[in-house]
Design a protein that fits this description.
The protein has helices spanning 8-18, 26-39, 44-58, 64-79, 84-94, 102-121, 125-137. It is mainly alpha-helical. The longest helix is centred in the C-terminal third of the chain and has 20 residues, at 102-121. The mean pLDDT is 91.
Length: 140
Amino acid sequence: MADITDSAHTNHLIKLLMMLPSPHMEDTYGPFWDRVAADVKTSPRYVTGKIAMHLKLLLGEENPLRHRRELASYALYFFGQAGDELLMSIATEVDMGAPQDTAGRLWVQELRTTAFAVLEETFPEERVHEALTSWVRSKR
């Protein structure tokens, strides 16, 4: 996959998400995203809308770091605590014909690690410097 952004972590997160059904995959798209939405008790339209919106916005000119962070945050929200049925659905998508959910569990683990790396690299530098200064100056 060609680099989409200047961030290896963000590119990896996008690739992980692109392993899942996309709108052109009509036979699996609906049922898969219904399962994701059920897992976090929201609507499929909310889930797919948030992913689509932040993918579009992070590729734009207006504050791409914010949208990278938002995409990572929503990815953790939608998949970070995946239940057994969702894990099996993910496994089926990333390793078609898999008899167990191992590929789904590994995908979720990789998504968690990658999404957190995106959160870390987009964490505001000024906040880091303020915190460091505060700790260095503390009397305890």
